[in-house]
């Protein structure tokens, strides 16, 4: 794995941007009581109905919207995730490059006090990439796992890499020799479109009533990205599925996740794009 040259990164600059992300994240979670997932799409699909029972059978939904699995739920199992030991893996920087180019808002890795000067130049993107790369290489803020999963249900096991931080869980599919990504299968498997496909910029205006500490520092807030996306995998009757939840998303327009968000379940079939087969909303009966 390549290393950055000395002097190419100023930790204090990316710390400021990431602090903004974490404060935005923490300000948006409200502990829940008496909440559950309610099936909206897929009421005639067996796995969707069964997953609703499995999610709600163990315990109530809690912040940040974990997906509990009833240990007594029949026909369900979870992949066996093996943590990566400390060391270098030939695919890691390629994973990070894929994620940065596809899904990361670069402004989150650019100093807050420099946001008014952001113009999206090649030099600014390069600086944001270096901050992103050093953050991943040197700070160990993410947990990393691999598992053998037949993700596209073709009868052949795939190696899936999963990264987990305090606010996200994201995955890619590795090549058979585990030196690179299987880019086609990874792209087919993503349950969310890229930032480019969505036409997302770096900043958005505050919504009416929306408040955070950036109101006093900057008159806009970063457009949400995969910092707030969490995937989870499960097996049902021998078939692989995975779900996706966003704790913050551009479409929420300042509304809380429990109100605007939806839990989606996907299935992947060989040579096809992931298909959303189930959608659930959060039914919140009471709050603390």
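-> sequence recovered:
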């Amino acid at each position: 794995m390549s290393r950055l040259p000395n002097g190419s990164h100023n930790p204090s600059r990316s710390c400021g941007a990431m602090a903004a992300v974490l404060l935005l994240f923490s300000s948006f979670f409200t502990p829940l009581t008496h909440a559950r997932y309610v099936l909206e799409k897929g009421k005639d699909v067996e796995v969707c109905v069964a997953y609703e029972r499995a999610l709600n059978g163990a315990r109530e939904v809690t912040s940040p919207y974990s997906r509990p699995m009833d240990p007594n739920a029949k026909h369900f199992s979870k992949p066996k995730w093996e943590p990566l030991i400390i060391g270098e893996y030939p695919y890691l920087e390629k994973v990070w490059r894929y994620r940065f180019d596809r899904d990361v808002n670069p402004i989150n890795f650019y100093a807050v006090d420099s946001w008014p000067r952001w113009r999206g130049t090649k030099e600014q993107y390069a600086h944001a990439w270096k901050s992103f790369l050093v953050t991943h290489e040197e700070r160990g803020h993410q947990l990393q796992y691999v598992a053998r999963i037949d993700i596209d249900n073709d009868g052949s096991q795939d190696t899936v890499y999963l990264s987990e931080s305090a606010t996200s869980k994201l995955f890619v599919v590795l090549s058979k020799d585990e030196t690179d990504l299987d880019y086609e299968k990874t792209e087919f498997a993503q349950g969310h479109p890229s930032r480019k496909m969505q036409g997302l910029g770096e900043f958005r205006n505050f919504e009416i009533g929306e408040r955070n500490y950036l109101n006093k520092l900057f008159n806009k807030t970063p457009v949400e990205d995969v910092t707030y996306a969490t995937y989870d995998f499960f097996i049902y009757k021998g078939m692989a599925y995975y779900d996706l939840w966003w704790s913050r998303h551009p479409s929420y327009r300042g509304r809380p996740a429990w109100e605007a968000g939806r839990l989606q379940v996907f299935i992947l079939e060989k040579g096809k794009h992931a298909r959303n087969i189930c959608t659930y909303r959060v039914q919140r009966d009471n709050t603390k």
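Residues 164 and 256 are 22 Å apart (CA to CA).
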